[in-house]
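Because discrete structure vocabularies remain unfamiliar, we first show an illustrative case, written as a sequence plus integers encoding its fold.
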Amino acid sequence: VIALDVLRALGREPEVREALLHELREAAGGDRRFSSVVNEVELLLASPVNEAGARRLAERLALALGGAALIRHAPHAAADAFLARRLAGASLTFGAGDGAIDVDALIARVELNA
């Protein structure tokens, strides 16, 4: 249902497409994983999306916007972990990665806030 709502919003409000891309482009540039996802979203939004592609579009938008928010507002270790696990990794399952994230920095951040 959410994916179809995304399609309807894009169809009714054409400026939404540019607003989404602007938000993503503002965060892009420093990380190849994120830049790759931004390029993917740009391609998805460049052509009409049918109902069959709506879920993929909604998923990629959600992940890309989450990544953009982390890049702009979170500590580097948190943004990097999200990019590694959610945007560039082979699996979305926690702990199923290649160990490329700074787990110690993430744990230290939680301990400081506790």
Observations:
- The radius of gyration is 16 Å.
- The longest helix spans residues 51-73.
- The CA atoms of residues 71 and 107 lie 19 Å apart.
- The mean pLDDT is 85.
